């Protein structure tokens, strides 16, 4: 009998440990399903705007963060992959239909007001200084003026080797995630004449990019989060990295943390206080995460067929020792026992080289369509 009780207790402890291992310092606080497959998200005030592939743009009220609810939508002709906001308009990267401009002055009744077709398939978009910068898989970076949202007009473009999948803009530079072409740095000081000034080849295909200060953070599909110094944009250099468990797709940076959408590995939170020594300090790995946006204390994740999910990262260096996963029991007041834990860190490599042809081959990534 004593042996049986020991086995039962051990089994219970193992199940509890596996359950608690689903998260660290991150809790799920809200969720809203979408009709198709959520791939991109942007947030402004009380609303989240989700690029939902075949179901276009979905507008979700997050005024009550624990109970997000869809309040409006606008269909698009193709498949909505990405979304960016500018004043009262949402710019949607809509695959073969290029850039669609949607008025969200009334979030409950979003309506398309203009569009600009692109030669390839629009995969992501960011807005800066009256221009939408669209990465157009197969057709590089397209610069589109949205000074008049009803007549968006392409004013310039820059060829990108390999597939352009994501883009970030800061100051006079656009940073493009170019799959097998690595990170491409484009001067957009003159938006009508964008020109490449530097590049960096990562170990694998680059899917996502974010920029903060003198550092660019790239999501390498097979090599995790890479930190690149762009203090000299013509000579970017890797200074640190932090591996992720599966496939890094997108990254957003807020304050001292990088939030990585890790396909099949969920949300990973990495401290970048020291860019040369990034350290994973939180995660929630139950869902497939393919897009990420951070606003205030919350991370808004586009999670494919799981729709929009909202997470709170509430600190690093602590871990629950009982009572289930963090999302169920986030504070001591709720009965959890806490203890300090070492975070995972990774030092930079001594050197980086151009990836092999095998590493640069097309990767199998998230699908926009339902199976």
Spatial gap, N to C terminus: 49 Å
| CATH architecture level-2 label | 7 Propeller
**Structural class per helix/strand content?**
mainly beta
- CATH topology group: Methylamine Dehydrogenase, Chain H
What is the C-level CATH assignment? Mainly Beta
Biggest sheet record = 6 strands, antiparallel
Task: Give the rounded overall mean pLDDT.
Answer: 84
CATH superfamily: YVTN repeat-like/Quinoprotein amine dehydrogenase
Low-confidence stretches: 1-21, 317-371
Our count of domains comes out at 1
Figure out the total of helices. 1
Write down the Rg: 21 Å
Task: Name the helicity range.
Answer: under 10%
Globular, elongated, flat, extended or rod-shaped: what is the shape?
A: globular
Number of strands: 32
Strand content: over 45%
Task: Sum up the structure in keywords.
371 residues; mainly beta; six-stranded antiparallel beta sheet; four-stranded antiparallel beta sheet; 32 strands; 47% strand; disordered N terminus
Give an account of the 3D structure.
This protein is mainly beta. The chain has one domain: Methylamine Dehydrogenase, Chain H. The chain contains one helix and 32 strands. Strands 1, 23, 24, 25, 26 and 32 form a six-stranded antiparallel beta sheet that branches. Strand 15 and strand 16 form a beta hairpin. The N and C termini lie far apart (49 Å).
């Amino acid at each position: 009998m004593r042996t049986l009780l020991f086995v039962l207790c051990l089994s219970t402890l193992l199940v509890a440990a596996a359950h608690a291992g689903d998260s660290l310092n991150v809790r799920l606080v809200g969720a809203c399903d979408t009709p198709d497959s959520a791939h991109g998200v942007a947030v402004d005030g009380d609303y989240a705007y989700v690029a939902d592939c075949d179901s276009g743009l979905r507008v979700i009220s997050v005024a009550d963060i624990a109970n997000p609810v869809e309040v409006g939508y606008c269909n698009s002709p193709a498949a909505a992959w990405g979304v960016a906001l500018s004043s009262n308009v949402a710019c949607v990267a809509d695959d073969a239909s290029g850039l669609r401009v949607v008025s969200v002055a009334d979030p409950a009744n979003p309506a398309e007001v203009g569009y600009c077709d692109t030669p390839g398939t629009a995969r992501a978009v960011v807005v800066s200084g009256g221009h939408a910068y669209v990465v157009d898989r197969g057709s590089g970076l397209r610069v589109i003026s949205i000074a008049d949202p009803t007549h968006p007009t392409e004013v310039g473009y820059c060829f990108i080797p390999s597939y352009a999948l994501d883009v970030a803009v800061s100051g006079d530079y656009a940073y493009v995630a170019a799959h097998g072409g690595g990170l491409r740095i484009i001067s957009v000081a003159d938006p009508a004449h964008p020109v490449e000034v530097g590049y960096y080849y990562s170990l694998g295909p680059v899917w996502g990019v974010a920029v903060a200060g003198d550092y660019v953070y790239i999501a390498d599909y097979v090599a995790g989060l890479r930190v690149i110094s762009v203090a000299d944009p013509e000579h970017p250099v890797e200074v640190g990295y932090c591996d992720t468990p599966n496939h890094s797709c997108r990254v957003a940076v807020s304050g001292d943390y990088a939030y990585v959408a890790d396909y099949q590995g969920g949300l990973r939170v990495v401290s970048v206080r020291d860019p040369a020594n990034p350290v994973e300090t939180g995660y929630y790995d139950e869902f497939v995460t393919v897009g990420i946006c951070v606003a205030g204390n919350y991370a808004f994740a586009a999670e494919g067929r799981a729709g929009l999910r909202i997470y709170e990262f509430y600190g690093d260096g602590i871990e629950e020792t009982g009572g289930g996963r963090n999302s169920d029991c986030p504070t001591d007041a709720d009965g959890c026992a806490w203890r300090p834990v070492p975070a995972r860190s990774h030092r930079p490599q001594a050197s980086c080289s151009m990836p092999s042809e095998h590493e640069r081959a097309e990767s199998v990534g998230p699908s926009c369509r339902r199976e």
